[in-house]
Design brief:
single chain, mainly alpha, Helix Hairpins, 8 helices, elongated
Amino acid sequence: MPKNPFITLGISENVTQNELYDTYKELRERYSKQRFAPGDEGAEACIRLEEVEAAYAEATEVLRSRYEISNFGDELSRVEDAIKENNLEKAQGFLDAELNRTAKWHYLQSVIFFRRGWNTDAYKQLEFACSMEPQNPKYAEAKEALFAKMTEGRQNSYNPRGENERSYRNTPPQGGAARGCTPCDCCSSLICADCCCECAGGDLISCC
């Protein structure tokens, strides 16, 4: 039967993390010195030192689990309240302090990212939430809605020959003359440049 780590350390199960660490530190120092003693005393100290190390690690996990269980609901409620207040920095702080990364945690993180305009990051968090709770309709609907929004944005922004894109083709608009640079435009530009050079004493086109 495994030993109770708190009994091994000689402390109550209702200790705080600081009290647990102080007890562990005291026992470790004691047995670390005694292990160099000759005979059975040194051998016993080595055994006790190993037991103290293992008991401290186990007791720490027990206290951590208790903290997560007792504070999980409260922390996420604070996150939701901060999001409703549109205080994203505060909401992110509460979320970062929560160690239990459940589906709801990822969902709330997606909401914060979405509010910041980081749609790609928000979508990734929704994927985590849906993978952890695939039967949750709220997360699935949020993921589908965000995907539709992101896809619509790509379709609107994708414009292979749009109005705002610079074109070098000589494509005339309806009922209008051709725009852009044509061969005639090039010739007329060269002739004008040659005239300017000749007035300045030079000659750009020697044949005319």
